[in-house]
Amino acid sequence: MDLKKTTAPVNTITYNKSKIEEPTGNIYEAITIMARRANQINSEIKKELIDKLDEFATYNDSLEEIFENKEQIEVSKFYEKLPKPHALAVQEWLEGKIYYRDSNK
């Protein structure tokens, strides 16, 4: 997933309920699918952030020495400005990018 090219909104917006429930015919099922996808996106973002911040990690036993690394701060600020995982999941849902299947069928 390329987080830089996403068109998901950063702020809260109102969605049309009929567009959200259209693929499944059930609003609750659609919300459940989007919630699971949001959890997946959150895990991916968290793993990616931890990997990037580990590159800057310095392991000291001394608590008195705290180094501020500009690159580390920039990476953190970038991830803070990203849309939230649930906004990304809703955007993917509306664009038809989420694959789901009904196990009852």
Automatic annotation (TrEMBL):
InterPro entries documented for this protein: Pol_omega/Rpo6/RPB6 (IPR006110)
GO process annotations (BP): DNA-templated transcription
Transcription as a keyword? yes
- Keyword field: DNA-directed RNA polymerase, Transcription
A Pfam family of the record is RNA_pol_Rpb6
Instruction: Extract the GO molecular function terms from the UniProt entry.
Output: DNA binding; DNA-directed RNA polymerase activity
Q: What is this protein called?
A: DNA-directed RNA polymerase subunit omega
**Superkingdom field:** Bacteria
SMART domains linked: RNA_pol_Rpb6
Q: Which GO terms describe its cellular component?
A: DNA-directed RNA polymerase complex
